[in-house]
Amino acid sequence: MGYLQKAAQHHSHSHGLPLPRWLIHFGALGIFAVSALDASVVPLPIPGSTDVLILLLSARHSTLWVLVLAGVSGSLVGGYLTWGAGKKGGESMLEGHVPKRFYSRLKNWVKQHGVVSVCTAAVLPPPIPLLPFLLAAGALGVSRRRFLWSFGLARTARYSLVAWLGVTYGRRVLRLWSRYLSGWADVILWSFIGLLVAAVAFGIWKYRHDRRGSRRVHAGAS
Asked: CA 194 to CA 173: how far, in whole Å?
């Protein structure tokens, strides 16, 4: 670990960028994991976490296509699982994740503009929620092929833009980090990890709870 931290510091200083020491350990694999969770039924504690990681890592001129590929691949894995959960759970699961005041509008929008609704949700940044659209795509009949193509292309466009922003403006972000937040790096990291573990546990519990509710609804209907 000490060697990796020294290498990260050396690589950061060689590029003139005050990169947080722990951030280097995320890399493409970390982006893949976070983006998969971001598109799954697990609510991430910080919306747009994948964008932040790509932005910061691309600021040090990492191999940009690897970062984008990791983000898109993770999103496809998480998104496909969410789409599958919506397909299996049907509208009863969708109702459990969408406020009643938005449910009718979301349902009508996805039915009329299935692929467009997926692309829109995948491209727009927070606070636009992604989960309801992915569940709705599965529950309301968007085919697997159309879903994967539209979601993958939209995520590619989004993360490519974020990587470009990282190259163009990321140095300023890292300098601000170094000036105001570098002393809190460990606290921020462990807080994020703690919130992430809690979010994963809650997401698993809610998914199982909604699955049981869906099964009861189907059993009562039959």
From this structure: 24
Domain that holds residue 172: 19-214
Count of domains for the chain: 1
- Rounded (10°) CA dihedral 87, 90, 91, 92: -140
Q: Band of the pLDDT at 186, cuts 50, 70, 90? A: low
One DSSP character per residue, 117-183 reads HHHHHHHSPTTS-SHHHHHHHHHTT--HHHHHHHHHHHHHHHHHHHHHHHHHHHHHHHHHHHHHTGG
37 within domain boundaries? yes
* Tens-place pLDDT, residues 51-98: 888 888 888 766 889 999 999 999 999 999 999 989 988 887 788 778
> Would you give the distance in Å from CA 63 to the centre of its chain?
20
Specify if 11 maps to a domain: no
Residue 17: count other Cβ atoms within 10 Å of its Cβ: 19
State the pLDDT confidence band at 37, using cuts at 50, 70 and 90.
confident
CA distances to 62, 138, 148, 149, 206 from 84, rounded to whole Å, are 34, 6, 11, 15, 16
Maximum average pLDDT range among 6-15, 189-198, 208-217: 189-198
The pTM of the full predicted model, rounded to 2 decimals, is 0.73
